[in-house]
Amino acid sequence: MAGFGGEWPPMPRSASRRTRLAGALLLLAALAAAAAVPVWRTAFARAAASGRLEAWANPRPERVRVSWRRIASPWPGWFEVEGLRVAGATQRLAWEVTADTASGALDPRPLLVRVLRFRNLRARGVEVRSARFEAAAESGAGPGLLPAIAGFAAPAPPPETRRPPWSFAFHRIAVEGLREVWIDDRRYTGTAHGHGGFELRRRMLAEILPSRLGFDGVRLAARGREVASGASGELALRVLPWHYRGARIADVAARLEGEATLRGTLAPDQALAYLFGSWPWLEIETAPSRVDARLVLARGALAPGSRLTLDSTGEVIRFLGFEARGDAHLAASVSGAWGAPTRVESALELERWSLGRPGAAPILAGRGLRLSARAEAPRADRPPRAVDLTLDLGAARAPDLRFVNDLLPESATISVLGGEAEVGGVLRFEPLERSGRGSIKMRAPRLELAVGAERLAGDVEIRLELAEPEFAPPSFAIGGSRVVLRDLSSSAPTPLAPRRWWAELALPDGRLVLARPFSAAGRFDARLADSRPLVELYELRRDLPEWVERLLTLEGLSATGGFEWRPGRLEIRDAQIPMPHGEMRATVTLERASRLGKLLLAWRRLTVGIELAPEGRHLHLRDAREWYGEAPVSAAPAAAE
User: Fold this and answer.
1) Would you call 504 helix, strand, or coil by DSSP?
2) SS3 state at 525
3) What is the pLDDT of residues 426-451, one digit of tens each?
4) How far apart are the C-alpha atoms of 269 and 247, rounded to whole Å?
């Protein structure tokens, strides 16, 4: 060949023959395949019509049943189905998957080693149902609350052990129009679409391959009660291989990885139980709430970036014998770093709230009541380990203090006529150490009182220091608490209130029980401007000689003693009041309709016992100390000595 203009040399005869032979074989193969497709379709249609195909698909109908309304195979290995139903039973549960239409490729070669492998599955109009056989007995669910799965009313017999179990592999599954997922008494309905896959190997190991699901307009009902509506979001997940036999939900959750977003209206009971359930004395009652959540999971652990916000109306928080009601906002988030310890921090706030005893009228109202919780190592398979809880009352007030009258003994002849109080306080709890501490402060700057026949007004401040909590019943140590009464006065000064009067009460130790009814006991240290209001209050002037009255009138007195109080009853035990050249001791019991007590006055060499009884005042001039130490307060009055 000269240059590019010459002719190509002739091809060797042997190479030409091989090329023509290969082309002929390819042509024959194509013609055979083309001729085989109609043959395959015809044979497949006859097998389907005769029932042989259904019999082949159901070798163990007591365990798995496959049925369809129409089935076709346009070419070998590819199937198209309408009205598909695949159902089965294990020794624990019955299950069912239905689809309006489905198509996919079955790889025939793995069938020889008992592996069923589908790929490129496409399904539309899908419903999934599952029910444990013991679920009805466990939950007490009535008819219609559990899915009915026809043909599997009893557990399936155990699998055969002579032959190796089948393996299943479903790759590249795509679902359009997932309408329902009904598991036991929880039923999800709505619209969802997604893709993914799973494998079950010899009934030993299971794995969910990377999958993605989007959903919209989802409704969730639990035991027939709607707990979510209008939910939308997206889920991307995978579950690393787990041991299939005997696996619990927690075992699967511990191998879960992925990310989920959710928006909609939900009943957040489970979320609140997860965040605040470490404190059994705290109960949160919720209404359907607007929820926005993002969850990031790494091997079952909630990872940084996870968050939850919730807004609801009509929230009820019950704690320590009280309940608060109001509109709530919850914000929770996971903090930390990937591969390092993480923590979930939650804050539940009632913007406007009222507080009182359950079933009774509220006594406090305020803004910003806040529950803040911290917990470590949040996971999907178990509740997190609580670190602490803070209860902040925010800015509150008691608009009408007359409720205090129900707590006072009537025989004290003291009642609240009016006034309001500002209230605030913070309590912190550490459940792992069963410890807690905090304080509650109340101030009533214009408290109006009736003391006997007099009307008085003053400024009252109470600061309760709370520690050493117990929760059954709820109670706190109150050592360090104080009550201060300032500027108690009357518009018309009388012997009862001749001028501005003050008093301070400190509790060095004691305990307050918050269960209904209230009660408290402990010791007190008191300082008073003078004793005149107390003398008048308990009518100590009546039936007493003038010289005893002068002994009872003290300026700038202090007192120590013990006390025990519950609504309608107050007992002062062995109060000791030092005086110049002597002392006074008293034990008094005030009840709703009676006042009983005994006093001991010691001045220089003079000792006088005074017995307080409904019938009058009685003096004990002989052996007064012995009488005071031995005579019970509730004893019948003795004759005057």
Assistant:
1) strand
2) strand
3) 999 987 666 899 999 999 999 998 87
4) 26
Tally of CA atoms within 13 A in the half-sphere of 471 that contains its CB? 12
β-strand partners of 447: 458
Q: Which residue has the tokens 């923590």?
A: 343
User: Could you report the per-residue pLDDT of 52-66, keeping only the tens digit for each?
Assistant: 888 888 888 888 899
Assess whether the previous peptide bond of 74 is cis (omega < 30° from 0).
no
What DSSP assignment string belongs to 292-344? Answer: EEEEEEETTEEPTT-EEEEEEEEEEEEETTEEEEEEEEEEEEEEE-TTS-EEE
In whole angstroms, what is the distance from residue 408 CA to residue 415 CA? Answer: 8
User: How many CB atoms are located within 10 Å of the residue 336 CB?
Assistant: 17
In whole angstroms, what is the distance from residue 45 CA to residue 81 CA? Answer: 12
pLDDT at 10 over 90: no
Give the Cα separation of 357 and 481 in Å (integer): 23
C-alpha torsion angle, residues 619, 625, 631, 637 (rounded to 10): -10
DSSP conformational letter for 379: B
Record the pTM.
0.78
DSSP reduced 3-state for 538 = coil
Query: How far apart (Å, rounded) are the C-alpha atoms in residues 226 and 188?
Result: 10
- pLDDT, one tens digit per residue, over 96-134 is 999 999 999 988 888 888 888 888 999 999 999 998 887
Rounded Cα distance, 185 and 269, in Å: 16
List of E strands, 64-166: 64-67, 70-72, 78-89, 93-106, 115-132
Give 130's DSSP letter.
Answer: E
* Cβ(200)–Cβ(208) below 8 Å: no
pLDDT, tens only, 183-232: 988 899 999 999 999 999 988 899 999 999 999 999 988 887 888 889 99
User: What is the b/e burial string over 426-435, where b = at least 16 CB atoms within 10 angstroms of the residue's CB?
Assistant: bbebebeeee
Structure tokens that stand for 272 in this block: 């609140």
C-alpha 458/C-alpha 589 separation (Å) is 26
Instruction: Indicate the pairing of strand 481-489 with strand 474-477.
Output: unpaired
